Amino acid sequence: MVIFNEGNPDCVRKLLRPAERVLRQGRDVTVEDFETRKSLWERIQDSYSRYLEGECGDFLRDLDSTFRAKFEAALAVLAWSFWKKGEGFPPAEKRFSEREIGLIDEILKYNVFEITTMEDILGKLYRRDEETLQLLRTYYLGMDRWIEEQLEDPEIKLPLRYYLKRTWKSYREKIDAAINEASKYGWFRTLMEEWEREKTEEVEAVRESYEAKVGELKKRIAEMVEFFEEERRKLEEELSASSIEEIERLRREKEELMERLEREKEELARRLMELKDEELRKKLEEELARAREEALREARLLEERLRRRELELREKEMELRKRELELSEKENLLRSKIEEILAMSGKVEKGSRLVLRDEARIGELNFVGRMKSKFAGEMRLLGKTYSVERIEEKKGEDTSRFAGKLDEKSLKNLPENRYVEVTLKEKKLLGRKERILVRGIYLTRVERLAELGLDTDPLTLAEINVHLIDARDSKGGTRTVLVIASPLGFEERVRKYVSSEDFHRNFYSENVSLILLDTESGEIIHNPNDRYAKALVPLVRLELDEEMYAKVRECVRKKLEGRDYLPLSECLECGEEEYVRRAFYEIGRDGHVVKYIDGFGLVLIRK
How far, CA to CA in Å, does 561 sit from each of 372, 398, 554, 556, 605? Predict the structure, then answer.
């Protein structure tokens, strides 16, 4: 039966000695001075690196996981010791996150169970050992569930989780067995009842705190609704007053005209009766009749104007009321969607972009053209001179498969995930000439853009991994620099992974470098330790009119002042839409949220 799969166990045992020493010491490693622990760190890291490079041969997966877990756990315990004693040690701070150190700290508190049997635990319980009781109380009140949740966190390194799961499982089995046995005794059951009450009280306190926050939010929403209703009431009063005033003015004009007509008629009739000349009197009566008819005609015209104006005002008032009702419903809908988004903030990143099909296509053509123009002739990189040996543009997607779904115009506006391959060759007279393959990919979800005409979700780690692994597996001894550009941006997990030591170890050492370009915000992401990526960043960075963009960004910031949210449609007056979107994404990274909301477009939300 094959156990080691041609690996050398004696070699591994030798490499693991400093790591196993640290793991055996556990919390007690803090008694060692700083220089001793620093030396242990360097020895373990060196042994770990030699093991990963295959110095001891290959082992079956289970054994390999066990060995790597011990190396990683030993480094984590040493990192915890530096943190525990308040000693600054940058390599440890860089390798392990605060979350990982916190998990190590909690599990090491139970390190006493490493050498303790169930009978030993029961003996300490019977003696009312304070330290043991405190550990069991913390365990019973939820520490077990908390640690299990942390051990499922993908942000914690896999080898470290592997080791801690096995260690915690052995502790938990002893603790559970001891608690089950001790619960047979009345005094311990009473103690557990007290713990249960404490647990209930803590849950109640958390619930009350949550309800208080919810109540405060509801109060804030009620105040906003009340303010909106008050503004609407004022608007209605002004509109109503304006309508009545206009109509009343016209009616007064009509009444004044009719009264004047009657007065003039009576005065003329009196004067006519005083005239003795019959012919003259008839002539004047005819003139009076004509004047009266003219006055009545003007009165009828005024009455018609009055009716038309009154009808127009009532129609306008009804239209305004209808629009006001629609705006109110839309406002309420937008507020409810924003509340949902804020409640989910930090859990999901979907819906934080808005990329239309034709915009994605234009962005693709711009990216390909820029790659071709930037990589031409000769260039200086890393103190060396390179010439472009080959440059070739290729399609990444065959969009003809959507011909039955899209018309000719839409099909031509569909991006093809085109990519440009550039081979750079070092210029020198003697010696081996280095070659660098730069592969610039414009990446979108073509199928979604074909089906929906838009996309709102950032690219995921899984979508980036496909291209990384392809580059890693087909490198052929040549350094490959992968440039992935996308208008969709990249989820936070991608940023963290690309910047991590794991990424540098897994890909940079395998002759693969990565540059991520967000073509909407202009942000560039790469591993800080990758010198090839750093050298090529100036060639892929987007060109920007800084002065114009600064004005647009300031305009957007001013519009956001005093508001809980700001739709992009209200900021188009600030400048070009491309710059407005970029300002949205930049301000969003400062602690706000940018989301695409159906029916409202892209919205910047204050947190």
Answer: 42, 46, 11, 9, 11
Element (H, E) at 601: strand 601-605
φ/ψ (deg, to 5) at 525: -120, 130
Please report, for residues 223, 318, 325, 335, 558, the alpha-carbon distance to residue 331 in angstroms, rounded to integers and kept in the order given.
Answer: 14, 20, 10, 6, 21
Condensed to tens digits (0 to 9), the pLDDT of residues 176-216 reads: 777 777 777 666 667 666 766 765 565 455 445 444 444 44
* Alpha-carbon dihedral sign for residues 280, 281, 287, 290: negative
* Helices (H), ranges, 32-157: 34-52, 61-84, 90-95, 98-108, 118-126, 130-138, 144-150
541 in Cβ contact with 524 (< 8 Å)? yes
Q: Which helix (H) or strand (E) holds 329?
A: helix 278-344
Q: Which two tokens stand for residue 418?
A: 């085109």
- Looking at 127-185, list the stretches that DSSP marks H as alpha helix, in order from N- to C-terminal side: 130-138, 144-150, 158-182
Q: By C-alpha distance, which of 73, 69, 85, 70 is closest to 36?
A: 85
Residues of the chain with confidence (pLDDT) below 70 = 1-6, 140-142, 144, 185-189, 191-193, 195-196, 198-315, 317, 320-321, 323-352, 475-476, 509, 545, 598-600, 607
Indicate the helix (H) or strand (E) that contains 15: helix 9-25
Q: Are 352 and 404 in contact (CB under 8 A)?
A: no
In contact, 584 and 573? CB cutoff 8 Å: no
What would the pLDDT profile of 487-539 be if each residue is shown by its tens digit? Answer: 888 888 888 889 888 888 877 767 889 999 988 888 899 998 888 889 888 88
> What is the helix (H) or strand (E) element at residue 386, kind and residue range?
strand 384-394
Kind of pairing, strands 355-356 and 419-426? unpaired
| pLDDT value, residue 261 | 55
d(CA 221, CA 355): 32
Cα–Cα distance measured from residue 151 to residue 161, given in angstroms and rounded to the nearest whole number: 6
Gap between the Cα atoms of 515 and 586, Å rounded: 19
- Calpha distance 161→73 (Å, rounded): 9
Structure tokens at 556: 């957007």
Q: How many CA atoms lie within 13 A of 367 on its CB side?
A: 31
Query: CA 312, CA 243: separation in Å to the nearest integer?
Result: 10
